[in-house]
Amino acid sequence: MGERDQIYRFSLLRRIEHGVLMVAFVVLAATGLPQKYPQSPVSLALLQAMGGLENARIIHRAAAIALMLLALEHIGSALYDLYVRRVPPSILPTREDLRNAWRALRYNLGLTGSPPRQGWFTFQEKFEYWALVWGLLIMGLTGFMLWNPITTARFLPGQWIPAAKVAHGSEALLAVLAILIWHVYHVHIRRFNRSMFTGYLSRAEIEEDHPLALEAPPRPAPLDPLEARARARRFWAAYGTLATLWLVGMVWFVSGEKTAVTSPGPIPDIARVRAYAPLTPTPVPTPSYLGRGGADIGPTWGEGIGAFLEENCGFCHGPQRREGDLDLTTYEGVLRGGKSGPAVIPGAPGISPVLIWTALEDHPGRLRASERAAIWLWIQNGAPR
Ligand code: HEC
């Protein structure tokens, strides 16, 4: 097969892009999936080979930065081809691709004798390209949320962060499986297609897979040099702006937060770490101990308790309503009590009606634990005035 029988398919730039993408993809999968499946022995071996989880995370982020730069470069070169060189956008999906997909399905099921005749990019190739674009978008967005959880939580509910983690991991698995099944089948098993490395595809392969490209090869639209130069100027102005914004955004993306990047490192000297072993039995709470929580009410009738009871119980147990014949707004009233005798028995919080009734389900006046503890302590201390 002579040189003439080779058809130029991928420019050097496209092949470099593919190389960078391939390396970054493998690195991302090798550093990311072990984080998704940390229990697997394969993950452990990979993480160990990389020198630990912390290293894996740093390498993962470096590869993500490479992909962000690649995306910026690719958007630029695609727009340049389209707008300045006026190359037809043969990668865009068309209606014909849908028909071709249907024809390919029928062909694979043996319902028709020949596969669809396709052009410069087959529907399979377009599908893979746009799946990649979509996947990168998802990975970029969810990656940002995981890299910058605090910033994210400022704009979105907190549940979005674990949701982003699930989406990031699942999309990763989907991408790896798509490469292993779809990509490997189409470019390695079906036929070993080396064009992404050599740049060329044989005429025979083009005839078989891209017959329409031979009949109507994608050619740049002719353009006069002045118009071409004007277009190039406009392109660089617009792309310069986009690239600046993109790079500024990337700096924000990468350095916005330190939170997600650090994880506790290995324990420096494991021999010196002592497990917690209490030498004294856990103290049992005593009534006076309970008092701690209620210090804000005050220790005597005059210094808090009286005011508290008047405020919280006086509405029903005051001079006017006297529910249960009980007035809790005066010290005397408390000691005299109501229908069931003294409301407070100094020194005996356990049998003082003030604490019993406020614990009853159907009594409207209730006490919080800390208030209960304060009153308990006050009665325990002899209900000082
Ligand atoms: C919304 C009204 C209401 C509030 C507020 C209220 N209680 Fe009562 N309390 C009652 C009623 C009604 C009874 C039952 C009277 C009866 O025996 O028929 C009662 C009964 C009591 C009794 C028993 C009286 C007796 O001798 O039979 C005590 C003690 C008591 N309350 C303490 C308190 C304390 C302490 C508070 C404040 C934390 C409080 N109550 C807040 C309505 C209230």
Description:
The protein has 385 residues and is mostly helical. The protein has two domains: 259 residues, Fumarate Reductase Cytochrome B subunit (Up-down Bundle); 94 residues, no CATH class. 59% of the residues lie in helices and 2% in strands. It is elongated. Bound molecules: heme C.
Q: Which features would summarize this protein structure in a list?
A:
16 helices; Fumarate Reductase Cytochrome B subunit; 2% strand; elongated; binds heme C; two-stranded antiparallel ribbon; 385 residues; mainly alpha; single chain
Biggest beta sheet attributes = 2 strands, antiparallel
Give helix and strand order, one letter per element, not per position.
EHHHHHHHHEHHHHHHHH
Q: What is the molecular shape?
A: elongated
Give the overall average pLDDT.
88
Distinct small molecules bound, one entry per kind: heme C
Number of domains: 2
- Quick one: CATH superfamily of the largest domain? Transmembrane di-heme cytochromes, Chain C
Structural class: mainly alpha
Q: Number of helical segments?
A: 16
Structure at a glance:
The chain has 385 residues and is an all-alpha fold. The protein has 2 domains: 3-261, Transmembrane di-heme cytochromes, Chain C (Fumarate Reductase Cytochrome B subunit, Up-down Bundle), CATH 1.20.950; 287-380, no CATH class. Helix content is 59%, strand content 2%.
